[in-house]
Fold this sequence. Notes:
The structure is a single chain. By secondary structure, this protein is α+β, with helices and mostly antiparallel strands. It has helices spanning about 5-20, 30-40, 45-50, 70-80, 85-90, 90-105, 145-210, 215-250, 275-280, 280-285, 285-310, 345-410, 415-450; strands at about 110-115, 130-135, 315-320, 330-335. Helix 7 (about 145-210) runs antiparallel to helix 13 (about 415-450).
Amino acid sequence: MPTRPTGPWLASGALAALLSGCALYHPMPLDETARAEALAPLRLDRVKVAAAALEHPLVKPIVIDGAGGFSPDEIAVMAVIVSPQLRALRDQRGVARAQVIQAGILPNPQLSRTLDYPHETDPTAVTAKNTTLSWDLSTLLARHDEIAAARANAEAVDLQIAWAEWQVAQDARLRSFRLLSMQTQLPLAREIEEGLTHNIEAIRKALARGYKTTADLTAATDLLTQARNNRLALEQAITADRLALNIALAIPVEQTLQIKPAGKFPELAAQQGALDELLGGIEKRRLDLVALQLGYRSQEATLRAAVKSQFPRIGVSFTRANDSSNITTLGGGVNLELPIFDRRQGVVAAAKASRQQLFDEYYARVAEARAEVRQILENLAAIRTQLEEATRSLPDLEQLAASYEKAYQSNNADVVTFRDAHAALATRRMEQSRLQQDLLELSVALEIATGRPLLNRQPAS
Length: 461
């Protein structure tokens, strides 16, 4: 009984074993089903669990209550968890980790098999066979540096994502406090507008009797126009911040997020504010600067790998063959590239240029951060002075408004003077609220510039 050839079966089995570990393609269409799943808001119970278990170098975990709305601190953590922009940014981790895996994979050996069948009829001739196994050794020279570059890049990506997450949290928290501030200012703006409207009515009546002039009416009309524009700008700013928060929290635009009122805005600790103390170690605290350092380390390894790639490519091979006379030979060979034309000049030059770019970018970012801290501290000092002056003048304006109100009720002051006094008081209160808001925004900017939390996170009610 003739023996069946086993060579093709063995080759088929080996090929099947090799292909069994390959990844398969799965379609991911951009259709209505995918859109509904991607844009579906995350359930609140899951957000609460994630917020309590959050692990982040700057954003601390928090227990979300949710009763009666959400505090600015809760909204900040929620934004980190559910933000669609951050969800897309975190996908970069998969790419960076895949690069680490790819850098550590050894090059595949190459197997070749040739057959030469005799053309002339010769009963003594056999099929000539040649089997060669070869492997490129040159990739091993830069393998260690390529792995180091990929790992450093993956760490840099993690820090860049953490930095972006903190900025998203800061933005959401700041918008929450800004909304609280503007909601306090809006009734005052409406009060001023209403008072000026009544003033115009009174001035028109006085003008008809000859007690006021056209210039008085024109001046009052200009003040009313300015007050109405201020009120409209405030309402537009409230709408813009609400929409921005809804987008950050993946909430439908028509839904209104309830924010819990805070007893007072968070403030910088008393000991914070010394320039040397804030600038000390800033390169190690700011996650974006640390990420740049890791990126530079990755580029250093990439340059070393590029330099090593100039070494001529070397391949080794082992051969087993027999000719048509059935004489079997065993042998080996070495394949050496002759670097006459291509000596990887462009690859090395590009790696050097990239390293120089990262070097300059890092120190430019450091200088920018240091200058930003100095500028913010100067602005903070100016805002604090203005806020103190506005707060100090409030009791006098309150007393003046109360005096004119009493005089108006006893017919010792006209309605225009009475309403002007109340408008001046409302204007000063709005100014105080805006300065408090500016103070908070500068304080948050100082946190970002220094790369660390500086504000008290739970202001007292």
